[in-house]
Amino acid sequence: MTVTLPRVLSTLPRVRLSVPVLRNVRGHAAAVDPPSFRPPKPEDGAMRRDWTKREIQDIFDGPLMEIIFRAATVHRMHHDPSRIQLCTLMNIKTGGCTEDCKYCSQSSSYKTPTKASRLVDIEPVLAAARKAKENGSTRFCMGAAWRDLAGRKSGFEKILTMVKEVRGMGMEVCTTLGMLSPEQAKRLKEAGLSAYNHNLDTSREFYPEVITTRTYDDRISTIEAVRQAGISVCSGGILGLGEKDEDRVGLIHELSTLSEHPESFPVNTLVPIEGTPLEKNDPVSVQTVLRTIATARMVLPTTIIRLAAGRHTFSETEQAMAFMAGANAIFTGETMLTTPCSGWDQDKAMLSRWGLRGLRSFEDQEDISVPTTRSELDKATL
Ligand code: SF4
C-alpha cells in the first residue's frame, strides 16, 4: 500500500493555531486570525453626514491592505479610477503673513528663507495659467499669504480679473486668500471662481497647538461663506504636524459632518522649513498617509482627494498606492507655493507607466461614464 503525505498528515493530532490580533507600533491591526479580509460592506460608498469618530477610527485602524481594498472599491463607485486630475498652484503673493501657522515659511512670526513680495501682476499669472493648461493641468489655483482681504480693495479687484481670465481659458479656478466674508465670496463666484481652498489643517483638538491667530470656527465660517456663495469647497489638512491618529480621524470627521462634504480634500505632508517651530518634526510615514487617504475615500466618497505639498518626498510606487487608496488629483508644475513639486513631464510619465490619464476639467467631464451605483459597478466589472 502506498502511504501518501496527506494520509500521514491526517493521522496526526489536530492542533488549532490561535494567533492573536497583532498590533504594530502605532496600534493599528497588523495581522489577525482568522484573516479579516472581507468584501466591502453593503453600505460602503454611501453618502453620509452622520459619521461618528468611533466609526472613522475603526476604519483608520483596520489592516492597511484591507482598508485600501475597500477604499479602492468605493472609489470605483463614484470616480473613474483611471483619471488623475493635474492641478497647478501659483503663489501670487508671497510671505509677510500675519498668521502664525507653525509649519509655514510665509508667516512673519518666524525667520525663514522666504522673502515677502507684493501681489503679482495679472499678466504673469495668466501666462502661468496658459503654461499649466498647455501641460495638461485642468485646475489652476492661486494662493496669497494673507490673513484676510481687509484693506486690499485694489488687490482683490486684480484677483477677480485673474479669476475671470483663467476661467475663460476653460480651466477650473481655485483661490486661497485667507478668511472671506460672504460678500467677498459672492464677488469671487460672480467672477467665475470654481473652488476656494481653506484647510482645517488638523483636528479641532490639536489645532490650537499649530495656530493661535485664528480659531477653528473662523475657518468653518469661511468654508460656510464659500458654500453659501455656490463655490466648491476645497478643505483638507497637513500630516506630520505632531498630531496623533485621532487628530487625523478628527479632521476627516469634522469635514464629513459639515453641511455638505467638501468637493476637494487636499492631503499635505509637512515639508519642514528652517526657522519654523516645526522645522525638526519627523517625517510622517507613507503608511499613515495611505491610511488617511483610504479613510477619507471611505468617508467622503465623492470628494476629489488631492496629493499636495510633500508629494515629491514619496516614491512613484508609494504614490501609485495612494491612487489605489483613492487619491485622484495631484499638484504638478514648478513649485508648490514655497516647497518643491514634481514637474509635468515627470508626472505625465509616471501616470502613463501606471495606465492612468489626466482628468478632464468639470466642463467636459459629463461624457465620462463612470458606474455610480453598486449594480452599475457589478455590471461594469463583469
Ligand atoms: S499657512 Fe497661510 S495663513 Fe498660515 S501663515 Fe502661511 S500664508 Fe499665512
Number of domains as seen in the coordinates: 1
The biggest beta sheet reads: 10 strands, parallel
- The run of helices and strands is HEEHHEHEHEHEHEEHEHEHEEEHEH
User: Which stretches are low in confidence, meaning pLDDT under 50 for 5 or more residues running?
Assistant: 1-6, 12-21, 363-382
Number of helices: 12
CATH architecture: Alpha-Beta Barrel
Kindly, what is the distance between the CA atoms of the first and last residues, rounded to a whole number of angstroms? 48 Å
Number of strands: 14
CATH superfamily: Aldolase class I
**Shape, principal axes of CA atoms:** globular
Set down the secondary structure blueprint.
Elements lengths: L4 H7 L10 E2 L5 E3 L21 H8 L3 H15 L4 E11 L28 H13 L4 E6 L8 H16 L3 E5 L5 H10 L3 E3 L18 H13 L3 E3 L2 E3 L5 H12 L7 E6 L16 H14 L4 E4 L8 H9 L4 E3 L3 E2 L2 E2 L3 H10 L3 E2 L15 H7 L2
Helix pairs in contact: 2-8, 3-9, 4-5, 6-7, 8-9
The structure holds iron/sulfur cluster.
Short description:
The chain has a single domain (76-377), classed as TIM Barrel. 35% of the residues lie in helices and 14% in strands.
Describe this structure in words.
One of its GO terms (biological process) is biotin biosynthetic process. Pathway: Cofactor biosynthesis; biotin biosynthesis; biotin from 7,8-diaminononanoate: step 2/2. [4Fe-4S] cluster binds at residues 97, 101, 104. 35% of the residues lie in helices and 14% in strands. It has a single domain (76-377), classed as Aldolase class I (TIM Barrel, Alpha-Beta Barrel), CATH 3.20.20.70. The longest helix is centred in the middle third of the chain and has 16 residues, at 153-168. Helix 2 packs across helix 8, helix 3 crosses helix 9 and helix 4 (122-134) packs parallel to helix 5. It has twelve helices and 14 strands. Strand 3 (83-93), helix 4 and strand 4 form a beta-alpha-beta unit. Mean pLDDT is 86; it is low at 1-6, 12-21 and 363-382. 43% of the residues are buried. The strands form three sheets. Strands 3, 4, 5, 6, 7, 8, 9, 10, 11 and 14 form a ten-stranded parallel sheet that branches. A two-stranded antiparallel sheet has the order 1-2. With 382 residues, the protein is an alpha/beta fold. The chain is globular and about 55 Å long. The protein has helices spanning 5-11, 53-60, 64-78, 122-134, 153-168, 182-191, 216-228, 245-256, 286-299, 316-324, 344-353, 374-380, and strands spanning 22-23, 29-31, 83-93, 139-144, 172-176, 195-197, 232-234, 237-239, 264-269, 304-307, 329-331, 335-336, 339-340, 357-358. Bound molecules: iron/sulfur cluster (SF4). Iron/sulfur cluster is lined by residues 97, 99, 101, 104, 106-107, 145, 178.
